[in-house]
Amino acid sequence: MEKTFLMVKPDGVQRGLVGEIVSRFEKKGFKLIGSKLMTISSELASEHYAEHEGKPFFNSLVTFITSGPVFAMVWEGENVIATARQMMGKTNPQDALPGTIRGDYGLTVGKNVIHGSDSTESAEREISLFFNTEELIEYKKDGDSWIY
Ligand code: DAT
Ligand code: MG
């Protein structure tokens, strides 16, 4: 089953949005298979956002993502990578539709509440960057027979 890496950014943690965000993915029918509250080192931040190195916002992005605890998660389910991106909304919260996480809770691109992998390759890369295999819990969710 497909897996993705999602992370409530420091602004979302500070604003008390962790529960709300977890709840949206739970209610959608996805399965949480790993999670932790953690602080990100600047090394991990630079590696995580390596594709943006050299861009004008790179330094402020690293400063922001290391500025407080984040809530890192791995979610599993059918088409979870693309669906989670839809549920997050566009990168700039001003372009994100109401009903999406960024559309409902964000105002600026620099503080857009949540990260989510954008492809199978980035999901695999980001999951292994943030989680050891023993931190990912494979289990059967009884409710799945009412979803699939
Ligand atoms: P996403 O987080 O939707 O995958 P991205 O990978 O293009 O977006 O960028 C990573 C983060 O960098 C994004 O969540 C917020 C920040 N960012 C992107 N574009 C920006 C810009 N033009 N100015 C400031 N921050 C930006
Ligand atoms: Mg991205």
Automatic annotation (TrEMBL):
PROSITE patterns: NDPK_LIKE. It is found in: Cytoplasm. Keywords: ATP-binding, Cytoplasm, Kinase, Magnesium, Metal-binding, Nucleotide metabolism, Nucleotide-binding, Phosphoprotein, Transferase. The modification Phosphothreonine is found at residue 91. Homotetramer. The active site is at residue 115. Its cofactor is Mg(2+). HAMAP family: NDP_kinase (MF_00451). The keyword Metal-binding applies. Belongs to the NDK family. GO terms for molecular function: nucleoside diphosphate kinase activity. Residues 1-138 form the Nucleoside diphosphate kinase-like domain. It comes from Aquibacillus albus. It catalyses: a 2'-deoxyribonucleoside 5'-diphosphate + ATP = a 2'-deoxyribonucleoside 5'-triphosphate + ADP; a ribonucleoside 5'-diphosphate + ATP = a ribonucleoside 5'-triphosphate + ADP. This is Nucleoside diphosphate kinase. SMART domains: NDK (SM00562).
